[in-house]
Fold this sequence. Notes:
This protein has 5 helices and 20 strands. The protein is α+β, with helices and mostly antiparallel strands. It folds into 3 domains: about 50-65 and about 215-410, Efflux pump adaptor protein, beta barrel domain (Elongation Factor Tu (Ef-tu), domain 3); about 80-105 and about 180-205, CATH 2.40.50.100; about 105-180, Helix hairpin bin (Helix Hairpins). Keywords: Signal.
Amino acid sequence: MKCAPLNACLQRFSRGHLGLALACATLALCAGCHKPAGLPSTGPVEVTVMTVEPHDTPVDFEFTAQTESSREVQIRARVDGFLDRRVYTEGQLVHAGQTLFLMDPKPFEAALQTAKGQLAQQQARLYVTKANLARVIPLAKQNALSQKDLDDATGNEKQAEAAVIAAQGEVETAQLNLSYTTIKSPLNGLSSFAKQQDGSYVTAAANGLLTTVYQLDPMWVNFSVSENELLGYRSQIEKKQLVFPPNNDFEVSVVLADGTVFPATGHINFANPAFSTETGTFLVRASFANPQGTLRPGQFVRARVSGAIRPNAILVPQRAVLQGAKSHFVWVVDNESKARQRVVEPGEWHGDDWFITDGLHSGERIVVDGAIRVIADTPLKITGAPRPASQPAASNAPREEPQHLAAWQSGETVTK
């Protein structure tokens, strides 16, 4: 019997051991994958939950607004003449009665003298006609003069009286024109630059505008409300989802461009009853005390209107509301600490929270933190209450955007 070559024996031995090794590895892998039935692949998801509690929630509405002087007066020349000089400092506060400009008074002084001379002439004429009438009356009674002579004397006396009245009017007009050469401020306010230089000839009709004075206290803040916003508010009021303060007594605060809040609060003192045909909005105006002159005309600010309430409103953190394929939803936790998906209808934002107008009820628990990892009908590990938002809602978070202001237009008082 011949033995096989040594190399062939070694090859058969290696293939046999290799197959045995592969079989053992396969059995070990299968044994590692098999686990007893009923053991979950991962532990429960850790979440925080909150209990839904409806309550009356004050809401603010913010509008883009612009400041306006409550009294903006254009200082104009009322007579034609040469502008002698400006006697105020441009850009400074001026007081009521303070002289701003002086015009050349000489022509007006001369006109006044002429008017006075004409008045004296007419007064002299009146004196003569009165004396003539006094002589004619007794002679007419004695039939020494005709009735026509008496009528003529009486008429001359009346004409002379009328001429004196007209001459007195000319004198008063000349005095007024002379007084107009001294141009004064009619109010306390901030002065603008001079539009005419010293020595310029100004005419009341063409280039009579000299400067402008702006009253700073009080200051007005104007903002506009669209028709869609008004209709939306009216709908929410009818559905008892929104309540305006009694007598529509809203409180308005101003947020400046750098985010600071103007210290004084104001109140709405005017709402235009008609819509603008150009913008489809109507004007609302609030008045603010501004004794220090902090607010200046023309500033762009944010007007925050407070006083409205959403009764029995449900607020949930924004991170608790998830976006599904067709709608928004939250995870509702049942008595067995399992999550069930619930479709909700979100409303406006309120700081870091979201108004829920439909889908949730008082006393229900919803998942807040960890909601994105939740699987339906699986046990949850509730670790506590939701953690605070990274930025408080009361600081720089956006306020609820306005939708409607129907009561401001109608003037109705809305109560619960």
